[in-house]
Amino acid sequence: MESIIEIKDLSFRYQADQEHYDVHNISFHVKRGEWLSIVGHNGSGKSTTVRLIDGLLEAESGEIWIDGDCLTPENVWEKRRKIGMVFQNPDNQFVGATVEDDVAFGLENQGIPLEEMKKRVSEALSLVGMAEFTKKEPARLSGGQKQRVAIAGVVALRPDILILDEATSMLDPEGRLELIKIVQKIRQDHQITVISITHDLDEVAMSDRVLVMKKGKSSQQALLENYFLGQI
């Protein structure tokens, strides 16, 4: 299976004069269609790494290859259209007055025709089990419902890669499991590649491989069964 993402000797510091690297000389790959979980203690560089992949941050050195092309300032916006990211707090992603407005926001920015937009919004909300909430205000939804809407907004854009940055961490155990199952279904139905940053073992259990990060470095990669057997 070919790689959709390749990271080569990537390094980054939030301040150019700081001695400590937030991400230091990491290399790994993500295969097309797989689910990779990134785990590690707080401050290990997990979120910084996915923000570099998504082009939200610019690396100090190293290379990020996405779908066969090296990420550059010239193509970063084109490559970002291949990636959808869901963050820890869904309230930070809401911009619409209603659920359907919010899901449509990204499509409007891309200039998607109205009828196609309506179709995608309807399909995305149905996929995450939120079709009956189209006219609701996002602020009136539960935490789990908000995350479903956030995922719908990303899925409607039809990305090749879905990144979950601790997207289940604010949910109760039942809500986490429901959301994980939704992501698994989206992945299977649409052949989306998933990268999840998580501390949740149920979420890790859905993945194909695990990347362990320590102090800004990728310490180990392993197949899921080896991770749970403690062989990394």
Automatic annotation (TrEMBL):
How does the entry describe its membrane topology? Peripheral membrane protein
Signal peptide feature range: none
Residue stretches making up the ABC transporter domain: 5-232
Location of this chain's protein in the cell: Cell membrane
The GO cellular component terms are: ATP-binding cassette (ABC) transporter complex
**Which keywords, in A-to-Z order, does the entry hold?**
ATP-binding, Cell membrane, Membrane, Nucleotide-binding, Translocase, Transport
What's the family?
A: Belongs to the ABC transporter superfamily.
Which protein are we looking at? Answer: ABC transporter, ATP-binding protein
**Which organism encodes this protein?**
Streptococcus infantis SK1076
Q: What is the lineage of its organism?
A: Bacteria, Bacillati, Bacillota, Bacilli, Lactobacillales
